[in-house]
Amino acid sequence: MTLLRIHVPDSPGAIFTGSAADNSLAAPAQQCQWALINEPRETVAGSGKLTDLPRGIERVQLVLPAAQVLIVRASVPASARRRAGSLLAFAVEERIVGEPDANQVSWLGSSGDEDVLSITDKQELGRWQQALADVGIHIDEVHCETLLLPVRNNEWSIAWNGSEGFVRSGEFEGGATDCGDRESPPLLLRLMLKEAAARGATPASIALYMTEQNEPPNIAAWQRELGVNLHIAGIWDWRTAPSDAGISLVQQQRRWQFVSGAAKRLKPAAWILGAALALHAVALLANWTLLANEQRALRLQMESRFRAAFPDAVAVADPALQMRRKLAEARHDAGISDDGDFLPMIEHLSAAAGELPVGTLQIVSYESGRMTLEFAAGQGTAAQRIAARLIESGLIVDTSPASSPATAITLTVRTS
Q1: Could you report the per-residue pLDDT of 337-373, keeping only the tens digit for each?
Q2: Reduced to 3 states, what is the DSSP secondary structure of residue 50?
Q3: Cis before residue 40, ω within 30 degrees of 0?
Q4: Nearest to 66 by CA among 251, 181, 211
Q5: In this structure, is residue 328 part of a structural domain?
Q6: N vs C: which end of the chain shows fewer Cβ within 10 Å?
Q7: Segments forming the whole domain that contains residue 353
Q8: CA distances (Å), 190 to each of 184, 194, 222, in order?
Q9: CA-CA distance, 23 to 26, in Å (whole number)?
Q10: Assigned domain for 309 exists
Q11: Is residue 276 included in any domain, yes or no?
């Protein structure tokens, strides 16, 4: 995955000049530094106008300088850890200047029994997001260069340019230092070591990374001042930090980045699924239309044959039923019994119920081609068995189940 990393200048006051249409935001300067990372290929670095930034990048990071991010320890409720906003801001209200709502506070993780929070200027962050959005670039993650610095277990790391720098003291912790020189380490670094010693978390060593081609400090003099072993780890640059380094300061945007990436990957499958559903809908509509036409044609054919056989019929509502009734009338006129007469139906019933114990079938009644069978209460199994046999013989059986164990079961038998 290709990553575009955009670095915010160290002096936030110089980033924005002039005025914008929205009075709450100032217009951004036209210059910025960036790095295009496409591992394992070589990183491409550059600087220039915002309008000249690479486009169509899958993942965009905004990197804030260490001096613009304050990382503190606090204790917050577990339910508030995954939220960024006023709830976390009020948890560190005594650590910040100004109104809590003016700061972007995010939960980074836990260190021992305490939580680690990052604090940034919400308005400055909003200005950068708006400025990049105006040129068509959406920020997926917000990082601090402090947490991009490599760190090892039981070892701190410091990035140093010859006069100042920043320290990473853990997976989620670190901060900018004050000034120092070749013979004296920054005072803030000494205070951080003193605080770590009070917690029993003094590092075994400190790795020193130079951020510029300057002369490194006097390691022996720094070790005497700090009381901790130091070693030079080489040159470090935010442009060459691995794409998976650090942790996003805006957790919500980081989660949405996964969703956005997943949506891009699933887009072809969504198109295929949509096309398949559309084809399925068209096939269902075509099949329904075909069946409806066939049903209409069969009804017209049945009606035509009925009228041909019985031209005196006034109306034809159900040609199949009317044909069966006319056939029954013709049989009766010729002295032939019909399947819906009492005798044929009682014969079917006798064949089906011949094995029933005495008293199981209590009432048998017949009227207009319908025979009603009433079984004794609790004879549901026998009634079902008789109904199945009658259906096998070509009759139609309607069952009225018992509403209670003491209620009789009724079967209505008919030919049509």
Answers
A1: 777 888 888 888 888 887 788 778 888 888 878 889 8
A2: helix
A3: yes
A4: 211
A5: no
A6: N
A7: 342-414
A8: 10, 6, 10
A9: 7
A10: no
A11: no
